[in-house]
Automatic annotation (TrEMBL):
ATP binds at A10, Y11, S12, G13, G14, L15, D16, T17, S18, A37, G118. Its EC number is 6.3.4.5. GO terms for molecular function: argininosuccinate synthase activity; ATP binding. The gene is argG. This is Argininosuccinate synthase. L-aspartate binds at T120, N124, D125. It comes from SAR86 cluster bacterium.
Length: 403
């Protein structure tokens, strides 16, 4: 790599990126610019500023991107009902393209030669950050310390911190902490005892949700208002996208909703075990499918369901800024024109139950669907011809002796 004078680092203030900031200064003898995206991780933001200042960093970017994150990334993803491998709500995956976008923008603004991130050489995030960066800035240089240095374990990182007077929170004696990533959609946990898929997570690991056993004995009811597939109000109160998700995280977390313990297939080829808390997102997925069940044409809904795994995989693998994702998003967004109305939900001890839905754009016709007298709205005799026509190919095959 050519000479590097200035690098923009995606900086959380946690163990890995704190080490990286110092390592970049020492290894490349360069100026480091830190960028911390406030996408809902809360208390991590201001400590990141103090840590960067303590390392002599002059240009420190800390930006509140919560509304942009939910409006332009989370909400479009939930319009697709995206789930990776049937379980993962993509909380980490969907945050990476926004961070990559701001990294290259700040690099351009500050005249930096390169960007850097703290993703390991075994993980998905290195792919997500770099695919996003190259899609938006084809000539950008990327420094990925985990692919260069010899600090190959948490213990070595902690020792480096000791040698260089870098403060590290959440140290538990000599034991390495969980690798955690938080944003407004979720918090993830990896490492430590979770590296054994047979080990049950410790109860005190979970930060956002109570256990279902400890949740209130009385259910909570909420009503969500939808416009074009996005939640715009909760219990009749208009809210911004980020405020909606904050509120749903709170009420769902209090009711023990949103925990997941998953072994997933990483893009780089290995299986990995991770635990996730996505309380608000769990409610959003359930409610959005309920709203679509009332308002979406059958074949359009089925087409979305067929495309969803591909769409989810694109996000998981880091292709948010790809032409295929843009094309799928256009179809998905077009499908949401009539996804308007209200969904009522019951939250109780880890469960989300749909208890009502209504819409001025509903395709549900009670006169046709009723088991009572429909006054001629549906001629049941028509079903005989419908069945015979659809059975025609089966009957011909049977006559030819085919199974």
């Amino acid at each position: 790599m050519s000479e590097i004078n200035k690098v923009v680092l995606a900086y959380s203030g946690g163990l890995d990126t704190s080490v990286i900031a110092k390592w970049l200064q020492q290894t490349y003898d360069c100026e480091v610019v830190t960028f911390t995206a406030d996408i809902g991780q809360g208390g991590e933001v201001e400590p990141a500023r103090a840590k960067a200042e303590a390392m002599g960093i002059k240009e420190i970017y800390i930006e509140d991107l919560r509304e942009e994150f939910v409006r332009d990334y989370v909400n479009p993803m939930f319009r697709a009902n995206a789930l990776y491998e049937g379980e993962y709500l993509l909380g980490t995956s969907i945050a990476r393209p926004l961070i990559a976008k701001r990294l290259v923008e700040i690099a351009a603004d500050t005249g930096a030669d390169a960007i850097s991130h703290g993703a390991t050489g075994k993980g998905n995030d290195q792919v997500r950050f770099e695919l996003g960066a190259y899609a938006l800035s084809p000539g950008i240089k990327v420094i990925a310390p985990w692919r260069e240095w010899d600090l190959t374990s948490r213990e070595k990182l902690l020792a480096y911190c000791e040698e260089n007077n870098i403060a590290v929170e959440k140290k538990r004696g000599t034991k390495s902490p969980y690798s955690m990533d938080a944003n407004l959609l979720h918090i993830s946990y990896e490492g430590d005892i979770l590296e054994d898929p047979a080990s049950e997570p410790e109860e005190d690991m979970w930060l956002w949700t109570v256990s279902p056993e400890a949740a209130p004995e009385q259910p909570s009811y909420i009503e969500l208002d939808y416009e074009r597939g996005d939640i715009v109000a909760v219990d009749g109160n208009k809210m911004s996208p980020a405020t909606v998700l904050e509120h749903l995280n709170k009420v769902a977390g209090e009711n023990g909703i949103g925990r997941a313990d998953i072994v997933e297939n990483r893009y780089v080829g290995m299986k990995a075990r991770g635990c996730y808390e996505t309380p608000g997102g769990t409610v959003m997925l359930k409610a959005h499918r309920a709203m679509e069940s009332l308002t979406l044409d059958r074949e359009l809904g089925h087409l979305k369901d067929e495309l969803m795994p591909r769409y989810a995989t694109l996000i998981y693998n880091g292709y948010w800024f790809s032409p295929e994702r843009y094309a799928l998003q256009a179809l998905i967004d077009q499908s949401q024109l009539y996804v308007n109305g209200k969904v009522r939900l019951k939250l109780y001890k880890g469960n989300v139950t749909v208890v009502g839905r209504e819409s001025a754009d509903s395709l549900f016709d009670e006169e046709i669907a009723t088991f009572e007298d429909d006054a001629g709205a549906y001629d049941q005799a028509d079903a005989a011809g419908f069945i015979k026509l659809n059975a025609l190919r089966l009957r011909i095959a049977a006559q030819k002796g085919r199974k």
